[in-house]
Design brief:
alpha+beta, Cathepsin B, Chain A, Ubiquitin-like (UB roll), five-stranded mixed β-sheet, 29 helices, extended, disordered N terminus, UBL_USP40, USP, Peptidase_C19, ubl conjugation pathway
Length: 1247
């Protein structure tokens, strides 16, 4: 997906010039690379647009689509030059597509850019970096094109090429009445899960019938009763181009996560759709389709990369035969030759040939053996008798080929095989009369057609963003399965033939103005490439003047400033060394004596001179001078009166010399004093030892640098002292450690290694948790990364002066920033294996650390996880869920077996249930440190839901004395006691006085209807005291944060269709009359403001039909009619109880982006109101009050409380952050997955 994210050479033809001015050789100003050997152009990836590139290449290689788009001229689409003219409508998207297709056809560049096209979509840089689904893009792009082409001759372009229809039919088994419904499609979406391939998926969709029988009957409108019926679907109209979308992404409801289906899914190169069509009487070509594009997805369901295999229908590209294919053809030819030789040695072939050469087409059997001897030089008895028997018996055994005379003396060939040998057509098929088997004749003809097509000029290419590679047709089979597999298939009708003029002609039907633009661009490209080639031969040389340098510490250093000591010269590398010398003379005002030019190099120690440049006739490129090379200009002998020794043998080396300093009690261990020393690379180590070490001292070297591991330090032995610095491997940046005699205890003399690297000597903190009654004590234990945890524990017990018996009954547990004790560390781990940072805090606690086969788990009890303390337990990883639960119940003292275990989810709430009680913890991926929740209640059987039921009682506003009859379907949201919401990090202030009474639990099948749930709820003891006539007098809501959430409508809908989770709770609200809400009805709680007070009358339920429109204008008229007030004399607002805020619903359309369509602008169900069932709408009567403030005193109190809670939490976090600064260093930040954002393309209005 991010293949070319950091490449910066954008398309040459672009309205947007990207990149800043840089040096002429920078990549930004270089002309784009020309096309490669395939002669096809790729498309640049803008960061995350591989899905777009794959679809655009497919449309580009659909010639009919491309030419239909080219047929729309500027008189219909407008011109890109008029984009900024407000009085002219320019259809930008089709214009940019035309321009992109022209670039892909004609512009000589490796890859085109889609920057202009995506800008016409209204996308910003964030959208171009975001991954999207190509199937979603296909539908959205076609919709945008249809909208853009309204009112032009191409208004039906998409429908003409891609539109098809499916008819769904239900046939009554009694009256044979057919009920049908027709659906349109631009692409067919087919299942992948549990399906072997495309043909099986189409068979399941369009051949298999679904029967309504037994308990599942169909109500026939003609019979007016429930009857048996058959339901089926067929393809009624086939489009010229068939797009097939494969459903590879599914959702696992058990794991509550998406996954990609990677099983094998086959699809044919050619497919006959006759079995799946409603009408089957047409010719075969009407149903035959050929595959020409396969969009491939590589990766998982949350990201990946797209590329596309495409068939070059117009033979625009150059498909070269690969070496491996040539090798394969050679092997096939050799195998064929071998088979021919075997065939020639076959007696059947030899005898048929001998008989065929006879004029009479028959021969005496006795002479047949003689003819064989003359032809092969070997008789039948000698060559074939042992294997095949006598010749006469062999002829009788092959009576289907040889015809013996009645007296068995003569033999001839049967007529049909004589015809096969001499009367077949050019294809090698038997010439049959029309009366012969017509099926076989048709199959042979079809086979010939397939072979002819497979050897035609159309070849396949892999277009992977900027890269285009030829592939073989059989490579498509590799995309049947796996993480890299086919995702979209594109077929074209076989009867669609391309004109001969289009073959290998990229200029075919390209509009004249685009031809001119591309021709001009190619001319400019060629000119830029010539200029670039010339610029590539220019090199920059840095001329170091010897008169401005001095020699000290073994290297050359400028005596003046860099600007005065170094001259920069740009010269063509095709010029000679004499030309360079002449150019230097011209630069310098005066030079005395010989001028010697030598190559030089800047080293860490300074400048060093290497080879002298000789031969004035040699070119600069031939001497090896490259761009940016350093050239030293001097007399060839000395600099500043001091002799300079040039060459590789005298190269100076800069070494880091380390000496030990004293021990640091601050916790960082011993440290080094570091200095630098320059020595020639040919100096002996003995010279280095004399200069640096004291008598009796030793030197260790580390060629990897001073900050590496202990094992990289090696003592220089006595026998190596005669070796030079270069031979032992010391280079610039290498470190040597000089140890005096009193420091040599750190060295293992036998192995010549350093015992411990000083930087690793540090400490860990250990806190005593074994004697809680005593004063808490904390000690520091010195350790290295290789120290074993058991040694640290023993040292800590000794330092804390605890009893030795704790050695076998204690463990070390890390303490996190919040002061929580984490899982014990295995005692055989080192500090490094335990992933402990130096300075970490550990707790010394009672109990043994778990071994490698045990798990250390936390567990809590009940649903209130915030206030429940965590308990700990050690169990075997092979223990079952039931055994683990029993151990936890025993430790916590809970009675009975009416409990089950759940995982703790990321919100610190009880999540997924461990439903398989016999499964082992290891099989369920339960790990050490996990927290499990003991939850009351048995888990329901598989396929059943256990739903807690709450009774939701409407409240009457305090201070109001309306009767029950006046409170029909009403609810007042009173503000009383308030509490902090446990979910989320930010403090939330929610109502807790909602009148909810727990009624009990209901176990019900997921296939039951909502009406069944209400009936079972009515049987609970709590409901027995209430008089509810029928389920129609109950309203069901999901419960979210102890408030009504989603309204469940339609009593005849199955519970599974509501997608209720395992933790869903339902609240039941009583009604005074039956209610049957339609799918477009919106239930609102409407309340009128009390004049002169900051308060409201009780809420009234208002059912609003939004099928026609859901706009502010329509809602105002609905409310005005409800309260019998003039529409201009009311103000309305929506209440957001979680924020204690009111948002006024304006009288006019919302001020949203002009690119969005008008209907979307006005919809109250979209941003910013997101109007839904149960929302509170406040109404102000402007006839009685002028103020438009909708807030109440309760809102002020709620906001103030939220503000105080936020400040307290902020202070708490700051204090916690300061406390944990040291411990939190080096933590790796968690990379959260970005939220998914819907894909959209902004289109102007052209109606």
């Amino acid at each position: 997906m991010f293949g070319d994210l950091f490449e910066e050479n954008f398309s040459f033809v672009s309205n947007n010039q990207c990149g800043k001015g840089k040096k002429s050789k920078s990549k930004d100003t270089e002309p784009p690379a020309p096309r490669e050997f395939t002669k096809l152009s790729g498309i640049k990836n803008q960061g995350g647009t591989c899905y777009l590139n794959s679809l655009l290449q497919t449309l580009h290689f659909t010639p009919e689509f491309r030419e239909a788009l080219f047929s729309l001229g500027p008189e219909e689409l407008g011109s890109l030059e008029d984009i900024n003219k407000p009085d002219i409508k320019v259809r930008i998207i089709p214009l940019q597509l035309q321009r992109l297709f022209a670039q892909l056809l004609l512009l000589d560049q490796q890859a085109a850019s889609t920057t202009d096209l995506t800008e016409s979509f209204g996308w910003n840089s964030n959208e171009e970096m975001r991954q999207h689904d190509v199937q979603e893009l296909n539908r959205i792009l076609f919709s945008a094109l249809e909208t853009s082409l309204v009112g032009t001759s191409g208004h039906d372009l998409i429908n003409r090429l891609y539109h098809g229809t499916v008819v769904n039919q239900i046939v009554c088994k009694e009256c044979k009445n057919v009920s049908e419904r027709q659906e349109d499609f631009l692409d067919l979406t087919v299942a992948v899960k549990d399906v072997s391939g495309l043909e099986e998926a189409l068979w399941n969709m369009y051949v298999e019938e679904e029967y309504f029988e037994n308990d599942n009957l169909y109500r026939c409108g003609t019979c007016n009763k429930l009857v048996e019926a058959a339901k089926s679907a067929k393809l009624r109209k086939l489009p010229p181009f068939l797009t097939v979308s494969l459903l590879r992404f599914n959702f696992d409801f058990e794991k509550c996560e998406r996954y990609k289906e990677t099983s094998c899914y086959t699809f044919p190169i050619r497919i006959n759709l006759r079995p799946f069509c409603e009408q089957t009487h047409l010719e075969d070509l009407e149903y035959m389709y050929e595959l020409f594009s396969v969009i491939i997805h590589k990766g998982g369901c949350y990201g990946g990369h797209y590329h596309v295999y495409i068939k070059d229908v117009d033979a625009l590209g150059n498909w070269q035969l690969q070496e491996e294919e040539s090798k394969l053809m050679t092997e096939e030819k050799m195998q064929k030759d071998t088979e021919n030789i075997k065939e020639m040695e076959n007696p059947l072939t030899i005898l048929k040939g001998i008989i065929s050469e006879e004029e009479s087409k028959q021969i005496p059997v006795d002479q047949l053996g003689q003819k064989l001897l003359e032809k092969k030089g070997m008789s039948w008895n000698k060559k074939y008798r042992k294997q095949y028997g006598p010749i006469r018996k062999y002829l009788q055994n092959h009576s289907q080929i040889f015809q013996l005379s009645p007296d068995d003396n003569k033999v001839s060939l049967k007529e049909m095989y004589h015809q096969l040998q001499f009367g077949s057509d050019c294809r090698g098929q038997v010439l049959q009369s029309p009366s012969q088997n017509s099926d076989v004749q048709w199959t042979s003809e079809s086979l010939c057609t397939v072979l002819k097509d497979s050897t035609s000029g159309s070849h396949w290419f892999d277009l992977n963003d900027s890269k285009v590679q030829p592939i073989k047709e059989k490579d498509i089979e590799k995309q049947f399965q796996g993480k890299e597999s086919a995702y979209m298939l594109f077929y074209r009708k076989s009867q669609l033939k391309r004109p001969s003029e289009a073959q290998a002609n990229p200029r075919y039907r390209v509009p004249g103005h685009l031809l001119n633009e591309m021709d001009a661009a190619n001319i400019e490209l060629r000119k830029r490439r010539v200029d670039s080639d010339s610029a590539d031969n220019n090199i920059d040389l840095h001329l170091h003047l010897g008169s401005h340098y001095k020699l000290y510490n073994g290297a050359l250093h400028p005596s003046l400033s860099w600007k005065e000591s170094v001259l920069d010269l740009t010269i063509d590398k095709r010029k000679t060394l004499g030309d360079l010398r002449q150019s230097i003379f011209q630069l310098l005002e005066f030079w005395e004596g010989d001028m010697i030019l030598s190559t030089a190099k800047s080293l860490p120690a300074g400048l060093h001179v290497y080879q002298t440049l000789d031969g004035d006739e040699m070119t600069l490129g031939g001497t090896g001078l490259a761009d940016g090379a350093d050239v030293f200009v001097w007399n060839g002998k000395e600099v500043g009166g001091m002799e300079v020794l040039p060459g590789l043998d005298h190269e100076p080396v800069l070494l880091n010399v380390l000496r030990l300093a004293g021990y640091n009690e601050g916790g960082k261990g011993q440290h080094f004093i570091e200095s630098q020393h320059v020595v020639p690379c040919n100096a002996e180590l003995s010279t280095l030892w004399k200069a640096l070490a004291s008598p009796g001292g030793i030197i260790l070297m580390n060629i990897s640098g001073s900050d590496k591991e202990v094992e990289n330090w090696k003592v220089i032995p006595e026998e190596d002292m005669k070796k030079t610095v270069r031979i032992v491997g010391l280079t610039d940046g290498s470190s040597i450690l000089v140890l005096d005699s009193h420091d040599q205890s750190l060295v293992n003399v036998a192995s010549g290694n350093l015992t411990a690297f000083m930087h690793d000597i540090s400490w860990l903190q250990v806190k005593n948790f074994c004697q809680l009654e005593a004063e808490e004590k904390q000690v520091k234990i010195t350790a290295t990364v290789e120290t074993v945890m058991s040694d640290i524990k023993i040292k800590a017990i000794q330092e804390l002066r605890l009893g030795e018996e704790l050695v076998d009954d204690s463990c070390l547990r890390p303490i996190n920033g919040n002061g929580k004790l984490l899982s014990p560390v295995p005692e055989d781990y080192t500090v490094k294996e335990a992933e402990l940072k130096m300075g970490s805090l550990l707790g010394l606690c009672h109990g043994k650390a778990p071994n490698s086969t045990q798990l250390f788990l936390y567990f809590v009890i009940g649903s209130d996880l915030q206030g429940t303390p965590e308990m700990e337990i050690v169990v075997e990883e092979t223990a079952s869920v039931r055994e683990c639960l029993n151990l936890m119940l025993e430790k916590s003292g809970l009675p009975g077996e009416n409990w089950h275990l759940r995982r703790l989810d990321w919100c610190y709430e009880a999540g997924e249930a461990l439903s398989k009680e016999g499964a082992r913890l290891r099989e369920l991926n339960v790990c050490s440190g996990d927290t499990l929740v003991i939850t009351e209640g048995k888990l329901p059987p598989k396929g059943f839901l256990k739903v807690p039921i709450w009774w939701y009682k409407p409240l009457i506003h305090f201070g109001q004395q309306e009767s029950t009859q006046d409170q029909v379907n009403c609810m007042t949201c009173m503000m009383g006691a308030l509490q902090v919401s446990p979910a989320g990090d930010s403090p939330a202030y929610v109502q807790s006085d909602i009148r909810l009474c727990y009624a009990g639990d209901v176990e019900i099948s997921g296939e039951a209807f909502l009406e069944d749930l209400k009936i079972q709820a009515m049987t609970l003891p709590f409901f027995q005291e209430l008089s509810v006539p029928s389920p129609e007098f109950l309203r069901a809501w999901t419960l979210e944060s102890k408030r009504p959430g989603k309204l469940l409508r339609n009593n005849q809908q199955q519970l599974n269709e509501y997608k209720l989770g395992g933790r869903t709770e339902i609240c039941i609200e009583p009604l005074q009359k039956e209610e049957n809400l339609g799918p477009s009805d919106l239930l609102l709680r409407v309340q009128m403001g009390i004049p002169g007070e900051r308060d409201y009358y009780h809420s009234v339920d208002l059912v609003w039909d939004t099928s026609k429109e859901c706009t502010a204008w329509a809602l105002r008229h609905k409310l005005a009619a409800h309260y019998s007030l003039p529409v201009e004399k009311i103000e309305i607002a929506k209440y957001f109880p979680e924020k204690f805020e009111w948002m006024t619903i304006s009288s006019w359309t919302q001020q949203i982006s002009k690119r969005k369509r008008k209907k979307k602008q006005e919809s109250l169900q979209s941003a910013p109101f997101h109007l839904k069932d149960g929302d509170i709408i406040g109404v102000k009567n402007l006839l009685l009050e002028e103020g438009k403030d909708f807030s109440t005193v309760r809102d002020d109190i709620g906001k103030e409380t939220q503000r105080q809670l936020a400040m307290e939490k902020k202070k708490s976090r700051q204090a916690q952050r300061l406390q944990n600064d040291v411990l939190s260093e080096g933590k790796v930040a968690t990379k959260h997955r970005k939220p998914e954002v819907a894909l959209s393309i902004n289109v102007g209005i052209f109606r």
